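Input chain follows. Return structure tokens only.
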Amino acid sequence: MKTVVDFFNEFLEAEYHSTVSIFTKEMSDEESKELTDKTKSFLHSIVKYQHERSGAEFDEDMVEFSEINKNNVIKRHIFLVKEYQNATYGEALSRVIIGNKLYGFYCSYNMKTRKEIGYSQIFFVTDTDEGFKIVYLKRFLDGKWALMHGYEPMQITNTGHVVEVCKVQAPVDAVSLARYEED
């Protein structure tokens, strides 16, 4: 598990720096793109992940908002890691998966919010034809895990059975904490 945890920590570090770059006016578009491309390199090439400048961050009416966002970027907290075996995947995703282990990284949001720190996303990592890659994400909405999209060929249809749970840090948010304590 150490190898995949190291991989994911590298992703979190890259994501933090690239998110800051998106809202840093002093950084060129090319410099920001280099950092966001590095972040995207942790995801399998078939996974779409919107993580770049929109082009409007530094428009006159957005400058203050971008500065606030830049100051609120945080590195995601990992709450727990689950190792699964024998997951099943949609048709398109199954073509790139190698092996039978899947890892779920249960994480916080990457921005400070008014809410207490709690669940935001699960990043699913597995061995693929491109090496270890993030192949799917779920988001935490209204106290439940929700699919990121409805396109079944690109979904994890069943995570399989849990082999190991590694609790890293308890969330503070009460709803997230209750879910965390169930694991």
